[in-house]
Amino acid sequence: xxxIGKLPVEIPAGxxxxxxxxxxxxxxxxxxxxxxxxxxxxxxKEENQIVVTRSSDEVNVRALHGTTRAVIxxxxxxxxxxxxKVLEIQGVGYKAEMNGEDLVINxxxxxxxxxxxxxxxxxxVTEKNRIITISGIDKALVGQVAAIIRKIRxxxxxxxxxxxxQGERVRRKAGKTAxxx
Length: 181
Prior knowledge:
By secondary structure, the protein is of the alpha+beta class. The chain folds into 2 domains: about 10-80, Outer Surface Protein A, domain 3 (Alpha-Beta Complex), CATH 3.90.930; about 85-165, Outer Surface Protein A, domain 3 (Alpha-Beta Complex), CATH 3.90.930.12. The chain is built from 3 helices and 13 strands. The strands form 4 sheets. A 4-stranded antiparallel sheet has the order 11-12-7-13, covered by helices on one side. It is elongated.
């Protein structure tokens, strides 16, 4: 039995969960999310919690059990608190700024990179245009947008310049002069 899958998902006050077969719709103060799950797992609403059970002990059904419960839990957390990822920009002359809803990033290319905000995502640039906060209610979408922005200029191993997650450690390499000495 999945340790994650067997835990019930608590529904806080102010959150409305609607089940329609294998489709789940979660409404809260920050917005609404819906997702359609595999029919191999059964989703039931009991009082103020959601319980996920599986139909058999096959490997793929066991994998879906914990994943389904985790996605439903992330949906409930997303519509109540929301999710955010923080990116840091390091490098001389590297910066980010807002242009309306769009994010404009200058990271050493001959042109600024314009990144439009997808639906449900908001950007915030602070601290001398070096910290980017990506916020939204869908955890997967927030993580995907953060990964795409990081991919514009990933941190390089020699000087550490580039875009990185907050708290990310970049393995540094010694340059040519250190190898020759």
